[in-house]
Design goal:
Length: about 140
């Protein structure tokens, strides 16, 4: 079903990372950074100016860039996809990262369907947003 919604998720698709990047730049809804506490940062300006640094209004020595989840919410028609730049295993069962993502995504000022797909920037499929929420142990 995921491959019917997003062609670049086909198993044998070559050039997946570039296709994902092209898709997110062509159909962006929101560009985000989520800090380890779950606070959402709007990264649209950082992307527009090709800045890949931490937000300047962070409290001193709170966290490092590697602690953030960075990503995009993109849409084509009614189909939404959340692309997260992360290690392959980060959103499988890492409860800290799952909670960070769910708390941050809930703050995005755009309606997000529960069936929005969540993938890594490499094309690793984590399921829908609802699947991610179910894996989160509260």
């Amino acid at each position: 079903e995921a491959t019917q919604r997003f062609y670049f998720l086909e198993r044998r698709f070559t050039g997946r990372k570039k296709a994902i990047q092209d898709f997110t730049h062509a159909h962006p809804e929101f560009i985000f950074w989520i800090d380890p506490t779950g606070k959402l940062w709007d990264a649209r300006e950082a992307q527009r100016h090709r800045i890949n640094k931490l937000p300047t209004d962070l409290p001193e020595n709170v966290m490092q860039e590697s602690d953030f989840l960075k990503g995009h919410l993109a849409r084509q028609f009614e189909d939404q996809i959340i692309i997260v730049h992360c290690d392959q295993e980060a959103l499988i069962d890492n409860q800290r990262k799952l909670k960070q993502l769910v708390v941050g995504i809930a703050q995005i000022p755009v309606f997000i369907h529960k069936d929005a797909l969540v993938i890594s920037d490499q094309g690793d499929l984590y399921g829908t947003l609802e699947d991610i929420e179910r894996r989160l142990i509260i």
